[in-house]
Amino acid sequence: MSEELKVRKPDEVLDVRGESCPVPEMMASKKLKKMKAGQVLEVLTDHQPAVDVTLPSLCKSNGYPYVIIKDGDVYKFRIMKVG
Amino acid sequence: MPPEILQPVFSYSWPVVFGVFALSGFILGWTAQRGNYCFVNAMTSIFTVRSFERFGALLILFGLSALGCGLLVAAGVVPAYDQYYFNYFAGWYILVGSFIFGFGAALAGGCNLSMLYRAASGYVQNWIELFGMMIGTYIFAVGIWPFQLYTMEKGIFSTTSGGYVEYVPYLLFHSVSGTAVLLTSLLFGVPLISLGIYLQRYTRAKWSGKGGGFTSFSMSLNRALPVKSFGGNFPSPTPQPSGGLRLSQEVKDLLLLRKPYGTNLSTVILALDMIMVFLIGAGYTFNYLVITSSDGGRFFEYILMLAGVHLFLNTPWFSDSLSIVDASTLMVVMLCVGAFASSYLSGDFKIRIPREKKRLLIGFVGGMLVGIGVRMALGCNVGLMWTNFAQLGYDGIIFLFGMLGGVYLAVKVQERL
Amino acid sequence: MKTAYVRKLLAPVVLSLFAVGWYEFSVIYLASNNQLALSSGDLAVYVIPQQFQGYLTATLWICYFVVFMGLAMFWYNLVNIVREEEGGRWEFGAIDLAMPLAIALELVAFFYLGNSLIGDNVAVRLLGYCAVLGCLMWFWYNSVKYVRVREVV
Fold it and tell me: Which chain regions cross the lipid bilayer (chain C) (predicted)?
């Protein structure tokens, strides 16, 4: 699952660079609700607490798998929506 | 009737009192930044991700502060009047104000505390929010304050005085004796701390029981860092030290700013900070932690002073509620310095501008609502809610529910924006 | 030059300037506005002289502290940036030599500026002398090491 998430092209991208909590997880939650099961959302963020705490919480709460990819100053937080 | 005289409990010179408030602000800014302590986030996470971990920490914070300050009074170290002297009026405005505040803060992306420490960490969104708050304070001063003052004076859905009238030991036992304060502080502290711990455990238990088959990891694209695996289960919302990790290593990492502070460590430091100010400031000034609720207005006044405009001469609220300087001025300035120092030294400091420009407008509008809300409620999430738990009053409880309502509405509105 | 370097070097200097600016603002604007509040009979705004003086004294101390902290951060980052530019191969150089002197100078300036506040407090002064002497000994040690490293190269 995680290998697939790592290499697969995301279906939707949410750019919340420059935003702080609670915006990243609120926007991601909103976006995920509109997506179909099996699709992948990539959240771009430079807010460390979102990567450490709030986005993982969102995934755990819904049971969605995720991977975190660090690209310079930016994190790519990929979430797969599952049914 | 209990006495209503404010006299210094311990003798220091004024520079020491101001210095201690400045130090407490520095500690507050540093700790909140390292622990990413945000009251609004603690509440939004209840509605967005069903996590009570941070909200539980807030309850523990309120409980520890009430217990610590209450025990100091019960033991006779600080007289009771120093605890209730600054208890404000209670009324409709606290509920309405906290609701508006919660709504605005969740929209803008930060409560009064996180707005300041994030502004000092380079978040432009929070600079805009701070500016919006200044404007909101002015709108409140000229548009709402005269009406609110009228209802306060006439007792329309409002008490007509603060002080011991709002002091829960007095309300329950008609006494401000050590025993009454002890019983009340236990009544506040024990349930709040127990509920906080229960909510945190409940959330952690929920996380560990869910998603057993998934594996999460992090990797670096441009650096050949090893792939980190969290194992079969999802970790706790706040990273927990694994059993094998030695405590000394953990402490070293925290001291060298390699790792953020855990939620509960931040909670304990913040509660101790509150108790320190309560003890040292007793009899001198407002002896609690207080954030920009009034200083947002004060800084607006300062900016206009540079242009030769003097709001304190004839503008409502500015002319009757705000001294030129007080201990909170230095506290807020040093909060920003402390937050800047910790974000800078940990390598987190960076000027961050939101990609979506409409977020700046939302930040400004949210900031204005924050300004109006905190002034209506007579204080912010720190200066009124947290402080009032330490004061053993009941305004904090009203604020807590009002703010929860506002945050809930903002989460729903945000989904449609 | 990388933008990150500018940010790292500029931010502490801005912090130090902010501290000086805040103190100056307090002395010039707040003091005169406090008098204006008194003369216009606005006692809810006016702050009594002892309290206002206490604020100014505390602000002056804080100003020294923050300026000191800002300069220390600036220096620390300058060293790190030079190290990074040298590709991490750089082990001992001129900055190691200059560092103790810079810190000693900062300490001297700190104590010089704080003279009026410290007064005749012997304990604080002794602490200051020890710190400056410590820096000078550190400088001497680094000088010897610097010469040896150069000889080996």
Answer: 9-32, 52-76, 97-118, 124-141
Asked, for residue B287, whether it belongs to a domain, the answer is: yes
Contact criterion met (CB below 8 Å) for B45 and B207: no
Which tokens is C96 given? 């190691």
The overall longest dimension of chain B from CA atoms, in Å, is 71
Q: Which residue of A has its CA nearest to B363?
A: A19
User: Of residues B186 and B379, which shows the higher confidence score?
Assistant: B186
**Which residues from B are below 8 Å from C69, CB to CB?**
341
What ipTM, to 2 d.p.? 0.85
Residue B80 identity (one-letter amino acid): A
Question: Other C-beta atoms within 10 Å of B237: how many?
Answer: 26
The pLDDT assigned to B227 comes to: 35
Among candidate residues C118, C74, C71, C79, the one with its CA nearest the CA of residue C96: C79
Q: How far is CA B130 from CA A40, B44, B117, B299, B366, in A?
A: 36, 20, 11, 10, 10
- The Cα of B283 is separated from the nearest Cα of chain C by a number of Å equal to 13
Amino acid at B339: A
Please say whether the beta carbons of B131 and B410 come within 8 A: no
Give the relative orientation of helices B327-345 and C3-25 as an angle to the nearest 10 degrees: 170
> What tens digit of pLDDT does each residue of B290-317 get?
766 677 788 888 999 988 888 888 888 8
User: Residue B380: which domain range?
Assistant: 14-414
Of B38, B48, B118, the CB nearest to A58: B48
Helices C31-39 + C49-85 axis angle, to 10: 160
Phi/psi of residue B213, nearest 5 degrees:
-85, -10
N-term to C-term CA, chain B = 53
Does some domain include residue B6? no
Residues B103-135 have pLDDT tens digits of: 999 988 888 889 999 999 999 999 999 999 999
Q: Which two tokens stand for residue A66?
A: 């995720």
For chain B, the domain total comes to: 1
The pLDDT tens digits for A27-59 are: 898 888 888 888 899 999 988 888 888 888 888
Q: What is the signed CA dihedral for B384, B387, B393, B399, rounded to 10 degrees?
A: 40
- Average pLDDT score, chain A: 86
